Prior knowledge:
With about 500 residues, the chain is an all-beta fold. The protein folds into two domains: about 230 residues, Jelly Rolls, CATH 2.60.120.200; about 210 residues, no CATH class. It has no helices and 30 strands. A hairpin with a 2-residue loop joins strand 10 and strand 11. The protein is elongated. It starts with a strand and ends with a strand.
Amino acid sequence: MSLLQNSNAIPQLGGYNLTDSVRLRQSASALLTRTPSTTSNRRTFTYSVWIKLAKDPTDTSYLLYGSDGTATTDDKNFQLRMQNETNGAWIISRGYPNTNFFTGTTKLRDPSAWYHIVFAVDTTQATASNRMRLYINGVEDTQASGSIPQNQDTAINWTGAVMGIGGSTYSNYPTGTGYFDGYMTEVNFVDGQQLTPSEFGEYDDTTGVWKPKEYTGTYGTNGFYLPMNATRNLISTDYLVIAGGGSGGSRAAGGGGAGGYLTSTAYLKPSTTYTITVGAGGAAVYSMPSTRGNTGTNSVLSGTGITTVTSIGGGGGGVYPGTTGLTATTGGSGGGGGSILGSTSGAGAAGTAGQGNAGGDGATAAYNGGGGGGAGSAGSQGTTGGGGTGGSGSASSITGSSVTRAGGGGGSSAGSASGGGGAGGAYPNGNATAGTVNTGGGGGGARNASDTTNVYSGAGGSGVVILRLLTSEYTGTTTGSPTVTTDGSYTVLTYTSSGTYTA
């Protein structure tokens, strides 16, 4: 496929230039594909694209496709396609094998014209006709038939499915079948919103012609923009953003929760500066008096044209209540609960959805705290035999090798941890271990069975922000002194302190 100059193809408003498009050839089975690294909203999304036919469509042409490769059920197969008809084609959406969710009535007949297609989906809508809405050149096809079931998941925004633009990756189709033949430009895919054409186009008051305009909204977790313009192409950049871990509590205490863990792909604008904030771990606390652990600090990736990525600091561990009643705190992952010598225990705190897991409860009849939550799993409960284990971390190969980070801290009485989390203090009175720096690991909970000994909890590990992009697109313009490495054709920037990157 190639980028072609066609500056006169689409009328433009107010200096918003559309000078290029991508040429997709059916004979070459040409298409664009991606596989989301994170499952996001499979029920609500908007797809906007400008197309120009290279010929009268005489067979099926896919505009958007998602499939897990088997296409055995409606949630594993999604099609938005032009259905063949002599002297024109109309647009339909299907599941498996031929479930017609939506059948349009507006026919596309003119190979010389540019068409603006907006397909807006929200299967949560109570009104069936509102769940899938098709607009062509700003006008809704209100005569369309069919309906997708309410709350139906699709194969879009799913890590188990390959998304295709202009064709299908389903292996049962022969070469050339199902592929779009023509030009595409101004592809906007918005995750989590059902939008109208006015976000992407507008009428010229003088001519009444529908024209493109710049989309200025947010894209969501798996959203993207493809301008098909060599001078305005966005830079695909994988990221891993981990917040600072929480510290453990100070007496018969729970471990700290791991910092929030977010990883996906952002699309950076050239000549734009992006800000990286690396969160600190929660500071250690000591046991006289009993003190709850401190929450870690958020880590953030932000800048023009992307949805701000904010990972939440890990929650602090709870402590033996005494007269203070201090409980664990919520964070990216929740802190573990403190113990109590009675019929109830301190409860572990919740984690932030999509970023981490809950901490474990403290023991009910021993000075053994619960483990802090981790990015991979919840912390375990303390028992009479020992402190709870911190929740597991999550592994990422963004740097080129697999590394597990963001594990929860262990509860008091030597509860263990993984993925950078610290271990709990040992029996009878023991300091805990800190979470490992730049992993977002939670600190361990301290063990103290007396009112006279002073012991310290483990501090939370500081966070980290990692970016990965093609070396051919790396500018070298940074602040904050990130560590720069290469992995094959990619450059990897590891920020252990705050800074910036200019795309």
